[in-house]
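[Automated response] Your request has been received and processed.

Submitted sequence:
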Amino acid sequence: MSVTLADVAARAGVSAATVSRVLNGNYPVAGATRTRVLRAVEELEYVVNGPASALAAATSDLIGVLVNDIADPFFGIMAGAVQSEIGQATRKLAIVCNTGGSPERELTYLTLLQRQRASAVVLTGGAVEDAAHGAALATRLRRLDAAGSRVVLCGRPPLATEEDGPHPLALTFDNRGGARRLTEHLLSLGHRRLGYLSGPAARTTTRHRLEGHRAAMAAAGLAADAERLTTHGGYDRASGYDGTLELLRRDPDLTAILAANDTVALGVCAALRDRGLRIPQDVSVTGFDDLPFAVDAVPALTTVRLPLHDAGARAGRLALGREDAPPGGVATFHGDLMVRDSTAPPRP
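Generated structure:
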């Protein structure tokens, strides 16, 4: 017997109307209640609008594109490229789902897209490193696949799961290699007192970039300093500003600061200027991603250029079935080191 809305309501201890509100996303529901409902959906393997076999025969012309923050150029460029590819197809509509970085909202959007019988889903950006969320995400993606939806990961690593069955196509960025090259660039200039402003903890992008930086520092015999002179924050300007002040408190004689991304680097530059320090004469600064403003910053920002547009365009073609899957279902995009005026040898 198939699972009903009433079964989910009973498992979650709420009314059927509350379950419907959570799944529709059209009425405010308390976070704890939403979590109970979604957990019940997972435990009972509830499929909205009938069995998966019926959904597979009737996917819509809708394609969902999930982003953490559409106002962030990192996500905006990829989402725009996906949408441009989809816009060239007849009778296809791309909608951008802004999660705000919330794991719960990511799962809710995937449930809603399954309910709308989306023909494809593209998830952009790094993944949350949490076992419970990873399991819930894997279940959502398996259901989408069973319902006939193509699933493409863009800018995030392959799904880490031991479950059998099909895995989503994954277009990844070489974040480790890019971060290592940035650090090696500064080391080659003679820097030995390097601070690192990392992104939010428990994100794959954050971990991979930090691992690349620490690998270069360890190879130079500076592993202890790398640990001491690392702070975590958001991928925003304010985190760059506040993180810089903390790094200077820990070591006033820093000669270089590596930022988690270009937006964070803008905050670094502002904090250094407010402290009366010159870039790069007193402190060199690097970013990551090569967002459009990086070359116009003053001084122009040394960074790693990721092919965000190319990755998004390829994800769009894969979502449409217009391009063959990469070997093994995974393709990696490498970044280019862009050396500009924000880095120089340390002062004598």
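Summary generated for your ticket: The radius of gyration is 22 Å. The longest helix spans residues 131-146.
If you did not submit this request, please reply to this message.
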